[in-house]
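USER: If only I could read backbone structure tokens as easily as an amino acid sequence. It would mean a lot if you studied the pair and described how this chain folds. Here is the record:
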Amino acid sequence: MRIRDLFSRSRPVFSFEFFPPKTDEGERKLIETVQRLKELGPSFVSVTKTGGKPAEATIELTARLKHEVGVEAMAHMTCATAGRVEMSRIFELVRDAGIENVLPLRGDPPADQPGFVRPPDGFGHASELVQFIRERGFSFCLAGAAYPEKHPEAPSLEADLRNLQIKVAAGVDFLITQMFYRNADYFAFVERARAVGITIPIVAGIMPITNVAQIERIAALSGATIPADLQADLDRTRGDEGAAREVGIAHATTQCRELLAGGAPGIHFYTLNQSPATSAILRQLRRDHTGGRPPS
């Protein structure tokens, strides 16, 4: 199933993001996590491409989730260190694995490299990778990353939006935003995107907070702003992971309700390979939308 077809339905699209674990035991536990989350009826899951593992690991895990667990799956594919010949080989592997959905990303440079350097015969932007996929005739449904508070490397919101226009024009089918904690940022971003003619679905990316120090590091790297009132609540829970998790669940649940009521076509949960917080939030959202009935 191509994910773009899910947005023609009347119900919201819920999805989860995972990353390939480092060990076989970690992968076994992740498969069990996805099997549990499957009971909540996610529309799809996605698997990231991590710097520590080759693209084949992402392809293998994505294929397992799709074919063995039985949930639609999307593979993240990055091009920060690969040229056109290598990326063509990778996308042939993706196609041959029966994967129909891909999120093309530029990706981060290697840890020992101070900044991004375009690889020989490679790509400088995700939009170039999207164009390459379309020109090579791969029939994947393509997602694109979007940044409500702008990409950290973009000089301005306007420049970031121009780059997004180029990516969408290259052939992206829908967008998933970076994590954010102020819904006003999402709604303002959608308004700007619509104003310049971007009409494809824009899914809201939500990362439930389960650990204060962890989320502060991630937010700093991604450029996401933690609102002052939420930060104050988190500060009061510092050192108490259980209390922090409850604050995070409550905030994310409120966020998701407001986003869906405001017209967001779906929610993409950044799970960090953990299920309890996401499960609690999605169970409540399902109750909101089904009157307590199980997902169909």
The CA atoms of residues 92 and 138 lie 8 Å apart. Residues 292-296 have pLDDT under 50 and may be disordered. The first helix runs from residue 24 to 38.
